[in-house]
Write a structure and sequence with these properties.
Helices cover 11% and strands 29% of the residues. The chain has 2 helices and 9 strands. Strands 2, 3, 4, 5, 6 and 7 form a 6-stranded antiparallel sheet that branches. A 3-stranded antiparallel sheet has the order 1-9-8, with no helix packed on it.
């Protein structure tokens, strides 16, 4: 595992156990032994070129884990290959600023990983804009939404267009307390 990924995971585990804004409930923090992760998989890091979608496209309402909706702009689509199979994802952005969000489900959800899906975004390593339409997508940084740890959170659910049939065996696995 590269040093950057290792250090990031150490920092995430520290945040989860000790930070006042951790999504873990107080009684789970004292027994917290760290999140469970896949081994680093360099084959699941991609440089992709997104096909930009029109700004005139209407905003979409993404359903959340609590039944609410949040608005996002469909920013662009891209494809990549996993285990010889071509996969397609849609990249979303905030309606006001270009904060990028990549929610996805894959063949590991509900068994190895959180059932509702995982995320990448540009506020953490794993989704880096390289230029106008090129991005580095590193699934080794895929993370569980906060609703995986507590029902107090309302998390956007990946739209069907981001449900992959291939397994993404990288990043965080399903959280199992204690």
């Amino acid at each position: 595992m590269n040093q950057k990924l290792h250090q990031f995971r150490v920092e995430v585990d520290d945040f989860m156990q000790f930070h006042p804004h951790s999504p873990l409930e107080e009684d789970r923090r004292s027994n917290f032994k760290g999140l469970d992760y896949y081994e680093s998989n360099p084959a699941l890091t991609f440089t992709v070129t997104a096909e930009r979608l029109s700004d005139d496209e209407p905003l979409i309402e993404m359903e959340t884990s609590t039944g609410d909706v949040r608005q996002f702009r469909r920013w662009g689509t891209f494809e990549f290959e996993v285990d010889g199979e071509t996969a397609h994802l849609t990249l979303y952005s905030d309606p006001v600023v270009e904060d990028f969000f990549l929610p996805f489900r894959d063949a590991t959800n509900g068994g190895e990983t959180y059932g509702a899906g995982r995320y990448l975004d540009n506020h953490r390593p794993g989704l880096l804009r390289l230029d106008e339409d090129r991005f580095e997508v590193d699934f080794n940084y895929a993370y569980n939404p906060y609703c995986a740890y507590s029902s107090y959170f309302s998390c956007p659910l990946p739209p069907r267009e981001n449900w992959l049939t291939v397994p993404i065996r990288a990043g965080e696995k399903e959280y199992r307390p204690g």
